[in-house]
Amino acid sequence: MNFSSFKLIAIVVGLSILIVGGSYLYKQSLKSNKLNQNNSEIKIPQSSTATTDKPSTRSAQVLPALPASPSSEESQKYATQIDAMAQDADTLSLSQCKANPLVVKLKSGSKLTVRNTDPEGIVVYIGPESLSVAPGSSQTIEPKLTPAQYSVACQHSAKDYNGQAGVVYILQ
Which domain does 160 fall in, by range? Predict the structure, then answer.
């Protein structure tokens, strides 16, 4: 076996490893996105009974669970719980891929500032939209989303993905 044959075999093995690893990460991403799609856009009526004495820190709140295939009653209960947790805000801070406030209420057409307080860059997904935020910096966006509730997902790397970092609730 000469050197060029060995080189060709090494290239084929290397590419095979990359393809298998990429396929695995892609499948994991699809699984995570499939779970998030079930609760990434739930339209609910505008609430006029939301309270204003909501806690302002994430530690006091946890997102409610939504089954992978929720019934309409479960979806409505989830939407009502999210509505009750929503806080009027124009800034969403992410620390260790956890949102604060946990649920941001934003009027359609308004701008949202996404702040990354971590020492490494992140990619933030709000429903179908995404943006990259450098370490310790902010990005301001105007989400082009219809009024609904959208899951916020956050990712530092392929191994560090939080598909339930928070919720952005777009109002009319």
Answer: 10-171
Asked whether residue 1 is domain-assigned, the answer is no
- Strands 91-95 and 160-171: what pairing? unpaired
Per-residue model confidence (pLDDT) at position 86: 87
3-state secondary structure of 155: strand
Residues 6+ apart with CB under 8 A from 73: none
Geometric angle at alpha carbon 87, from 59 and 119, rounded to 5°? 50
CB 71 within 8 A of CB 64: no
Q: What is the CATH number of the domain that holds 121?
A: 2.60.40.420
User: Any idea which residue has 């490893």 for tokens?
Assistant: 17
Report if pTM > 0.90. Answer: no
Which parts of the chain have pLDDT scores under 50? 33-59
pLDDT of residue 63: 81
> DSSP letters of 144-170?
---SEEEEEEEEEETTEEEEEEEEEEE
Number of folded domains that form the chain = 1
